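lol forgot to send this yesterday, sorry. struct tokens for the thing we talked abt
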């Protein structure tokens, strides 16, 4: 059995180094987008699982972890590697789908079944709908990865609002409810 690395805390206000900025710049290109959609998305959950979270395509530059959900319609387990950051104790994930016309399936899964695993830890997901909180979190997201600003510009033109989810640690979510 592979020992899992704890979910790394990602401060959205932290300054990024040169290597991070190069990786981010590549991720925002047409080639970077194609690589992410066709290679990273399909292989990162496997790579994350077999290395216990020690290695992904992002090489620790743009933070990502495996989100494990329950299929909205099928009820089957689903896994996808997605970027994230923290807001206090909570994890924040952005359902950008690379600025596509539709929301990613994992966002529909979280709405149907809010209990999930992220980076091997238990969470309860809530979509952020309050306008001020949504804007605050989206501004932080762009600080983590500038590409989220690109995706928002693309989706605004077609009338799609990119969902943002707050993942609250399962233990504290149970106490609050």
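and heres what i got for the seq, position by position
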């Amino acid at each position: 059995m592979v020992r899992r690395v704890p979910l790394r805390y990602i401060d959205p206000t932290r300054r990024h180094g040169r290597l991070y900025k190069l990786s981010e710049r590549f991720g925002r290109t047409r080639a970077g987008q194609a690589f992410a959609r066709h290679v990273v998305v399909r292989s990162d959950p496997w790579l994350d699982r077999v290395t216990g979270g020690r290695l992904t395509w992002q090489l620790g530059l743009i933070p990502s972890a495996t989100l494990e959900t329950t299929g909205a319609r099928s009820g089957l387990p689903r896994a996808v590697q997605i970027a994230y950051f923290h807001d206090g104790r909570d994890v924040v994930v952005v359902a950008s789908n690379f600025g596509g016309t539709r929301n990613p399936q994992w966002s529909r899964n979280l709405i149907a079944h809010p209990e999930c695993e992220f980076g091997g830890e238990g969470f309860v997901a809530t979509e952020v709908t309050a306008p001020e909180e949504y804007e605050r979190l989206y501004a932080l997201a762009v600080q983590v990865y500038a590409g989220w600003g690109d995706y928002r510009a693309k989706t605004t033109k077609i009338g799609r609002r990119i969902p943002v989810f707050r993942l609250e640690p399962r233990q504290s979510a149970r106490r609050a409810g």
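The chain has a mean pLDDT of 86. anyway ping me if u want another try
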